[in-house]
Fold each of these.
Amino acid sequence: MSEIVHSIDTIAAIATPQAAGGLGVIRISGPDALLVASRVFSPVGEPPLTGSAGYRAYYGKVTDNETVLDEAVCLVFRAPRSYTGEDTAELSLHGGLYLLRRALGAVFNAGARPAEPGEFTKRAFLNGRIGLSEAEAVMGLISAHGEQAAAAALNALEGSLSREINAVAKDIIAVSAQLAAWVDYPDEDIEDISAQTMKQTFLRAKDALDILLNSFDMGQAVTQGVSAAIVGRPNVGKSTLMNLLTGFDRSIVTPYAGTTRDAVEETVTLGNVALRLTDTAGLRETDDPVERVGVELAMKKLQRASLVLAVFDGSDELTADDIRLLEACKGKLTVAVINKTDLPGKLDTAPVAEAAAELVEMSAASGKGLDRLCAAVERACGTDRFDPCAAMLTTERQRDCCKRAVRWLDEGIDALNNAVTLDAVSVCADACIEALFELTGEKASESVVNEVFARFCVGK
Ligand code: GDP
């Protein structure tokens, strides 16, 4: 558990989205949570909430200065068995924004202060309910775009990553303990420390961490999504493909070349990959100054995108514009889409297949072949091997800690190979453990912790 000291006051926030809804929830947490809640909520036919043993739902009325605002249900949780580890009351009101904000104002007048972003989850961390990587998983769960991202986040929330990291740390701690004994009592007849055994432990730890590091890109593709651009010359079917993927007429589809002049953006889930997708103006040589701006923007989008969906018209021969596109895709992760397979084929696909990582024949108009496109995108992003149950690094912070741990293991292995004194090996082992514990949050500094929670929304 973290050693960071924190002041314990009572906080409150709206935990549901800031929009009208069927229900809206105000969360109150802290030592005075039930006192604060009892000042704004009176249970019908029950004694005040302050006497509640917890784990109960109460029906009653929410009031502000004796004006009844709403009928509500209040859930009561008693420390330490709540999300935050503190006494908590959750008021479920009817979800109007005015009503929720007014009730929240009443809660503040009753003695709570506004919660900072992520403060409920931060308290769960500070009270030892969850580790730092689990807190990050909560964030992942909230922002998950699809089933697999949600499954991976839930798996992390249940501790898959911290279990893996703790297992590695345990081995290194055993080495460190032996080394510490040797450093403190070099003349004593301490259990023989074999350099070979230590090296094997370090190598094993490095293998485990390398697997996690390799999982990062795949995890990013599933949890954060991949920036992708749909490119191609005019009229090959880019907008039709975009509309097929987004499921509605987001782009303007017309039979006239050069109609999509701006870049249109949308997040779509293809297989298990969330694509942050841009449909661009058609790439072609043009004298029209307005169209040229669109073409230049499309080229920039292509260069910046992590994945390119390069669209070609299968019912037409390869044109000079198509060849220029293939040139532009060099060095980019490209999935080539040969569109309009419902029409007689004329395109020589060989040069396209050579330039792209994957080639898919489909009809954007009918949707035939969409399943092949999903599979090709998964293969191109490497997520076809994605296992949501495996431990995985999901944030840059976790990756940075993991990389540092590996660097210290490398230094330790070097020191052992070069028969440098065991003191040096001991320093490396301790620094490695520190990086691993920073990852799980067991030894994270206050600024690291603050940074993790600053990215949360208020009410979580
Ligand atoms: P863009 O300029 O590349 O965005 O192309 P559009 O999506 O606007 O499509 C240009 C024309 O091709 C339109 O008339 C579409 O209906 C047509 N089109 C798009 N996809 C297909 C397809 O799979 N089969 C056929 N036959 N026509 C298509």
Note: DSSP finds 15 helices and 13 strands in the chain.
Amino acid sequence: MRLCRFDNDRLGFVEGDAVRDVTAALDILPRHAYPLPRHDPLIANLTALRPRIESLLDSAPRRPLAGVRLLSPVANPGKILAAPVNYRKHLEEARGDPGIHHQKQVAEIQKIGLFLKATSSLVGPAEGVALRHLERRNDHEIELAAVIGKSGRDVPRARAFEHIAAYCIGLDMTVRGPEERSLRKSVDSFTVLGPWLVTADAIGDPSALDLRLAVNGEVRQQANTRDLILGIAELIEFATSFYTVHPGDVLLTGTPEGVGPVQPGDRLVADIQGIGSMEVAVRAA
Ligand code: MN
């Protein structure tokens, strides 16, 4: 099942190049009072939502996908986990380019672990990326994003996939410089998720998906998730040895080689096999 959030927070069932408006399914979500839960209510209730969505399909209004504004398919992630330098060739590229490493030692992911991005950096493809530090290098990073569906702590890798609800495309936008990753990658709009969620049952094998990112039609990044240094299951085992994950938490699995600068006016097209394609405009903030 492919689910999107569009326009003014409507829920869409994606079907080819159309979207069926199944917002009425959200009526079954629990109403939360203060203090709010740490999870995303839609993701936490996805199992109950699915039959409700299916029952609405026949009568749901159908609209062309091209005519809707796609928002982040996860509205309220409790945290955004991200894997640094998790493809071998990107590690070599980062070590070889002063514009990326900024005189810092680029260590293997096994040594430096994961980092967190601010949830305020999250946008959907229709909102685009707004650059704030135009005098510095701002890079694109395409990544497979896994959305946690079930809470877990100390999850062994053999059970990691039980904790994943869905996948989508992620852009981990980055301003290069000497500061900590979590700061440089948390600029408003520097986490793009989209174009929709593909539920885990519909994705096939997430450890063998082609990824591709083009800037103004020129392919810059092209790889396959089989080249991940730490695979998705190992990343979840690693992450949950430090903290509990909750439904709606997003795991950005790392970017392959080919990262490079973007400028206001650029158009990024990110594709991941089994998910689809999303187009994202870059502008000055
Ligand atoms: Mn990244």
Note: Residues 82, 141, 143, 172, 252, 254-255 surround manganese (II) ion (CB under 6 Å).
Amino acid sequence: MTVTIVGSQLGDEGKGGIVDLYGDDVDVVARYQGGDNAGHTVVHEGEEYKLSLVPSGAIRGKVGVLGNGCVVNPRTLFDEIDTLQNRGLDPDVRVAERAHVILPFHRVLDGIEEEVKSETDDEVGTTGRGIGPTYEDKAGRRGVRVGDLLDPDVLRERLEYVVPQKRAVVEDVYGLDVADLDDPDALDVDALYEEFREFGRRFEAEEMTVNAGAFLTEAMENGQNVMFEGAQGTIIDIDHGNYPYVTSSNPTAGGAAVGTGVSPGVVGGGEVVGIVKGYLTRVGSGPLPTELGGVVGDTPGYDEQGEGENEDLAHYIREEGGEYGTVTGRPRRVGWLDMPMLRHATRVSGFTGLAINHLDVLAGLDEVKVGHTYTLDGEELRSMPPRTEQWADCEANLRRFEGWAEFDPATVASEGYEALPENARTYVEYIEDELDTPAYAIGVGPGRGETIVRESPF
Ligand code: IMP
């Protein structure tokens, strides 16, 4: 059977912890989109591991698959694998031959484009990992796939086609001199060929590449449980998110099928668990109707730290929740839970269950609010509008809940749901009712045992 894990908000909902929670029952963990933009921290036997590409399950001895929908930077992949091996682990990672490769010039172009956009305050606030430019080349049919690294002739042919085009973009569109780039070899066919052919040899020697759909289907036929691990979140999905402030792939449940090569029926026939952070955070630019305070450089129109109406509250939640990017270290923007966003996410992915995280972070507040609906042009909306500019104009209609006192996460997790303070249960039940979806798990602390498990999807 399969369980698909989907971020219901803007990423950073605590997906890794939930993947981990159900991990014991899983044999294979497959990522279906994104690349090394997906920072996740895994704590295993007292050791902390920070990963951005390797699926978290690989740390616990599960087979980790990077599906065809992923974009793979072999430099990052092998760095992470080598680091894990140096720390005594033996991760088993397989990579789809159909997945696209992030080449050094993709990162260069990501940086240049963001810089140019920042002149008019239009930057997306990307992670700078070259994600967008790689998916652009995939869609433009000029990408290099992991399988191409295994074939010297094909690799050279692909590089000879694409590199001059990229060089022309750098020089003629952006007016830059390639020699002045931090990594001038990023646009040198021979240097790229040598480095990436070597990665191809390593992929081959370690028998890491697979036909992902066939590999996963065979695993399921052998009775194995597969988890599809989504990265990022619904509102930064390229189709269903707040375009253009999005990542360039589909973190929603449909992406799990397309991005691994199993049928939609396989994904839909299993469980789809929506991961919800009990409040909201966002890295990078774009609207956020329930935002408290703001972050200079990311919150639109917010030029000076300290000017937001609920600055202290935002600061408090950011510090309590450790809301700083895993990949970039940037402070995250903070807001109240946004129900129109969650209704949209639930419809797009068809959640069969929820995991609601970080309720401990809100403990100790006198009151907790949620954006229950929006008002746009005098009309009440229960779900997000499709146009980002309209979303920016939405005013959140807040609903107030009594706060709950601080509690001991380990005790509450071991005693179960009824041990959660009553006001926190009221909050959970409101979310379940509004989304018509049961909460399978409730995160009450950052540790592995600090989650109330009400139901295992396996
Ligand atoms: P990119 O994926 O690096 O192209 O970044 C595009 C947008 O997605 C930016 O706003 C990023 O901050 C956001 N983003 C990408 N990956 C993550 C993630 O793992 N968590 C939260 N935000 C992310």
Note: Residues 11-12, 37-39, 124-127, 129, 131-132, 231-232, 236, 245, 247-248, 283-284 surround inosinic acid (CB under 6 Å).
